[in-house]
Amino acid sequence: MAIERSFSMIKPDAVRRNITGAITTMLEEAGLRIIACKRVHMSKSQAEEFYAVHKERPFFAELTEFMSSGPVIVQILEGENAIARNRDIMGATNPAEAKAGTIRKKFALSLGENSIHGSDAAATAAQEMAYWFSGSEITG
Ligand code: CMP
């Protein structure tokens, strides 16, 4: 299996509830290593830029409003099959459909306030990591 990197963002609902450590523990217990991490409070325009792929969706305004409503934790995860592994431990986007033992099943409040974002493919992982981190912030 290949060692990969993926991007992860712990969302404002989880930061507000002070459960970023509990979520990070689940990522680490799934075999993922945090090789870059910072806390940021993005502006509405940064949220619009980061989520530009969804700009035609009816929920775009709600999504970008929420993502800029408070601080988030952005992280780079590394490990075997990190992209798929991260998506497995996060669970389905809609917590009502997430499997037991996943982060969203345990912590997400709703489809919008679903506690964590993770890259869905290698190309988006590369884009999302580069959006938030410079090379010197990634420590391996
Ligand atoms: P995320 O993995 O961050 O990618 C885009 C986000 O949009 C998704 O998680 C959800 O939180 C959010 N989202 C998807 N569908 C809806 C919806 N119908 N209403 C509000 N937010 C949504």
Named once each, the bound ligands are: adenosine-3',5'-cyclic-monophosphate
β-strand amount: 15-25%
**Rg, please?**
14 Å
Q: What is the typical, i.e. mean, pLDDT?
A: 97
**In terms of per-residue confidence, which ranges show pLDDT below 50 for 5 or more consecutive residues?**
none
**Main β-sheet, spatial strand arrangement:** 2-3-1-4
Total beta-strand segments: 4
* Helix-strand pattern: EHHEHHEHHEH
Number of helices: 7
Give a short account of the largest sheet. Answer: 4 strands, antiparallel
Structural class, by secondary structure, is alpha+beta
General description of the model:
- This protein is α+β, with helices and mostly antiparallel strands.
- It has seven helices and four strands.
- It is globular and about 40 Å long.
- The mean pLDDT is 97.
- It binds adenosine-3',5'-cyclic-monophosphate (CMP).
- Adenosine-3',5'-cyclic-monophosphate (CMP) binds at residues 54, 59, 62-63, 93, 111-112, 114, 117.
